[in-house]
Amino acid sequence: MFGVVFPNRSFPIDISTFSQIDTFHWVLDMNTFVGEAYDEIKEMCIFLLNNFTLPPEKALAIYLQSPGSPFVFCGAITIARPSAVLSLNWPQPGSAGPQLLTSPNSIPLSAKIGVSVEDLATLASLDVSAQKKIEHLALKVGENLFNFMQSFCGVDGNKLVVPMDILDRWFKKFQEKATRDPEYLKGFVL
């Protein structure tokens, strides 16, 4: 049905390495590969195998779970997008909550990757990591603007006072740096 590769860490792994929970759910215990160093695994490539046909309205959703945390959505693949390289942003360990693919009374002791067949319409985004990169970029640009404004502001009671043309000056400086140094904008991305 599907295969997985951890770039620079593994050979292709097929579905037989995963524990099948039921017809539509599989779990890979990361202790199998890396033990407690699961958070060093930063990427995963997942792909549909050639002879498997996923219905067009379905997706294989990928979830991550750190020890003691709930599963969190990571991304998905579909018949129209049969492979993806996903950034693995592991949840904080020990942030117990509802457990997907496990019984409510069990606390997971190792990190896991869950794969689930789900309706495509129920998934908000196929690639959570791309959305997180965009959010991170926006936060870094906002932080850059705030730091620039702080160097020109004064305080009037509980209000910051900045020159009227501060946004124009910041944007011009931002554009000049980006033009001079192509690597400048890459520093804003994860």
Automatic annotation (TrEMBL):
This is Hikeshi-like domain-containing protein. It holds the Pfam family Hikeshi-like_N. Residues 134-186 form the Hikeshi-like C-terminal domain. Residues 18-125 form the Hikeshi-like N-terminal domain. GO terms for cellular component: cytosol; nucleus. Belongs to the OPI10 family. One of its GO terms (molecular function) is nuclear import signal receptor activity. GO terms for biological process: protein import into nucleus.
